[in-house]
Write a structure and sequence with these properties.
There is one protein chain. The protein is 33% helix and 25% strand. A hairpin with a 5-residue loop joins strand 10 and strand 11. The protein has 403 residues and is α/β, with parallel strands linked by helices. The protein is built from 14 helices and 20 strands. Strands 13-12-9-14-17-18-19-20 form an eight-stranded mixed sheet, with helices on both faces. It has a six-stranded parallel sheet with strand order 3-2-1-4-5-6, with helices on both faces. It folds into two domains: 181 residues, Flavin prenyltransferase-like (Rossmann fold); 195 residues, Rossmann fold, CATH 3.40.50.10300.
């Protein structure tokens, strides 16, 4: 059965991505009806949106031929869900406060359908207290959110504020349409309610001196997505994070650390916990000696760097007398992925290993393809957005605690 989405396109430079979203939804068998706000018309045209959706595009609350039949009510009733992309700070503020002064906000106020917001704005606008209050209000009212992503913005700044990519939004739409409760911001019991989860994410930095350090390319995206997915399932989540540019997931307690030893100490302080997901790319080695002042560059020779082994966080937690009920590790490999993951699961003493091939652009990228290695065997999951992988993993975790 074909699903129908009502897409509200707000006024922001990211509106061009909404045209790509229409095509991506259509590719997945989901049709779109478009409301284009006045601001949205400054960036895309009704003609282009209509051509891609194959349906009339609505812009004006006072289109009498439609309003004679209460058009804004019918628009929301005929849709399976509403998507707002881009969701500007202004549009979310008006929706949060029940303003209904144009077709978009009137429709949002009148709907009884699930609403998914894809925020897009300047990083300072996103981080503003007023915006965060509005987001929380909409969440409490049952709204769903995807993004914003971190990256370069049209204004020239860098940070959280980029609208999520069309395929990631489409993943979220599909999940919500299939009744994916990990996406559901509506009130009610969640499968992991009352459970405590510990997630590690991002890289560690092992200092050589105050200027130089040893690290890796981990962005933290997969770990942050898992923390969010577990929180959406109702778990009380603590995220121990190495240095990243990502905003803290909603409803998650984030603890920032730098080194592997700091990450282990912070992780142990959270125990006992029911769930441990070790996603962080922890440096296996650190400089045996770090300097309080910047070490001068030797003239005419290459310095030798003596190394010391870092603590094994996954093995330590898995073999602790306060071991969580379910311990899950990640295995990032460039070759023999499944074979090495099998050996790692046994060596570390964990229940599952999530194995992934990082020979491409997985570290720092937005997509992943993984194999879940358990005692009973392996299950391959095809490539998907990291948020989709996280939601699927959270569902599998919830099954353990509901059985």
């Amino acid at each position: 059965m074909t699903k129908h989405v009502l897409l509200i396109i707000g006024g922001g430079i990211a509106a061009y991505k909404s045209l790509l979203l229409i095509r991506e939804l259509a590719r997945r068998g989901i049709s779109s009806q478009i409301i284009l706000t006045k601001g949205g018309t400054e960036f895309v045209t009704a003609l282009s949106a209509g051509a891609l959706s194959g349906k009339p595009v609505y812009t004006d609350l006072w289109e009498l031929d439609e309003q004679a039949e209460m058009g804004h009510i019918e628009l929301s009733r005929s849709a399976d869900m509403i998507v707002v992309a881009p969701a500007t700070a202004n549009l979310m503020s008006r929706a949060a406060h029940g303003v209904a002064d144009d077709l978009a906000t009137t429709t949002l106020l009148a709907t009884d359908k699930r609403v998914l917001y894809a925020p897009a704005m300047n990083v300072r606008m996103w981080e503003a207290s007023a915006t965060q209050r509005n987001v929380e209000t909409l969440r409490q009212d049952g709204a769903l959110f995807i993004g914003p992503d971190v990256g370069d913005m049209a204004c020239g700044e860098f940070g959280a504020g980029r609208m999520a990519e069309p395929d990631a939004i489409a993943d979220a739409v599909q999940g919500a349409l299939m009744g994916d409760m990990t996406l559901d911001g509506l009130r009610g019991d969640k499968p992991l309610k009352g459970r405590k989860a510990l997630v590690t994410a991002g890289p560690t930095r092992e200092p050589i001196d105050p200027v130089r350090y040893i690290s890796n390319h981990s962005s933290g995206k997969q770990g942050y997505a898992i923390a969010q997915a577990l929180a959406d399932q109702g778990a009380e989540v603590t995220l121990i994070s190495g240095p990243t540019a990502l905003p803290a997931p909603q409803g998650v307690t984030r603890v920032d650390v730098e080194t592997a030893r700091e990450m282990l100490s912070a992780s142990e302080s959270v125990l006992p916990a029911d769930i441990f997901v070790s996603v962080a790319a922890v440096a296996d080695w650190r400089p045996a000696k770090s300097y309080d002042k910047k070490a001068p560059k030797p003239v005419g020779k290459t310095p030798a760097l003596e190394m010391a082994e870092n603590p094994d966080i996954l093995a330590t937690i898995c073999n602790s007398d306060r071991r969580p009920i379910l311990c899950i590790g990640f295995a990032a490999q460039t070759h023999d992925v499944v074979e090495l993951a099998r050996a790692k699961r046994l060596r570390k003493g964990c229940d599952w290993i999530v194995a992934n091939d990082v020979s491409g652009d997985v570290m720092g990228g937005d997509k992943n393809a993984v194999t879940i290695v358990m005692q009973k065997g392996e299950t391959q999951w095809p490539q998907a957005s990291k948020s989709a992988i996280a939601r699927k993993l959270a569902r599998e975790i919830a099954k353990v605690f509901s059985s």
